[in-house]
Design goal:
about 260 residues, mainly alpha, 11 helices
Length: about 260
């Protein structure tokens, strides 16, 4: 009997009829979308040729405008750090209020509705709204990335709290501890490593997004990048893009260092 079972072919991921029909429907819709969006091999080949000419005009990189570059990079860093710090601080209570295992339904749904609202729009679109509200400059960039931070960390933090072990919470409650002490000694120790992980990831994301919001006038090096594109100054565009890539690499190193400190 065991030999018969051992010889029987096994399939790690057996797809049912429903899954196959869903995969076929997605494939058909993808083909339909390709034709609707006017994709063609000729356009792709023409694009490669144009891309090669565009890249050729980027060399050699222009390093004669380093004052403009460093001014924009410095402002992007300031936007990213300020938005991350403020957004993380705001996300902490919103995440707690959004946890269904700690709060009543009315409070939970209110907090989650706020988080959904913050996650609904791309940071660039939010930056446009803040530029209209507070004017051009770094303040609009900080506010837009702060909204994105609340939307991302608030959602993940609430879900992390809902997955904690109830035993530790009940043990703290059994001592007669107040609600705040239950949060401090029963909830936060279980989710702190994940909260640090979410925060460092969002800081890394904000470093990248802070270079984009400037394109719509919300401060940072994005403004210089957009102006360089407008002037067909592609050699300076390459210098800016290379600096942004280097900045993201440095941010990755710093984020990994922070994770090691908190053992995440």
């Amino acid at each position: 009997m065991n030999a018969i079972v051992a010889d029987r072919p096994t399939q790690a991921f057996r797809a049912g009829v429903g899954a196959r029909l869903a995969a076929l429907a997605i494939l058909l819709y993808a083909l339909y979308a390709i034709f609707q969006l006017d994709f063609s091999w000729a356009r792709f080949v023409t694009g490669l040729d144009n891309g090669a000419k565009f890249l050729g005009r980027m060399f050699p990189p222009d390093v004669s405008k380093l004052d403009i570059l460093w001014s924009g990079i410095r402002e992007s860093l300031q936007i990213a750090v300020l938005a991350s710090a403020a957004g993380i601080i705001i996300s902490l209570p919103i995440g707690l209020l959004g946890a269904r295992n700690l709060m009543p339904a009315g409070v939970t749904w209110t907090a989650r509705a706020l988080v959904v609202l913050c996650r609904s729009l791309h940071p660039v679109i939010v930056a446009i709204l803040f530029v209209k509200a507070v004017g051009f400059g770094a303040l609009a960039g900080v506010l837009s990335l702060m909204v994105a931070t609340v939307g991302f960390i608030g959602k993940l933090f609430a879900e992390a709290i809902e997955e904690i072990s109830a035993k530790q919470v009940e043990a703290v409650r059994a001592t007669g501890a107040s609600f705040m002490n239950v949060i401090l000694f029963g909830v936060l120790p279980q989710v702190l490593p994940r909260f640090v992980g979410f925060s460092t990831y969002q800081l890394d994301s904000n470093l990248r997004n802070s270079t984009m919001v400037g394109i719509v006038g919300a401060g940072g090096v994005g403004g210089a990048l957009f102006a360089a594109f407008q002037r067909f100054d592609y050699d300076f565009v390459f210098t800016i893009l290379a600096t942004i890539v280097a900045l993201v690499f440095i941010g990755e190193v710093l984020v990994n260092a922070v994770k090691k400190v908190f053992h995440v």
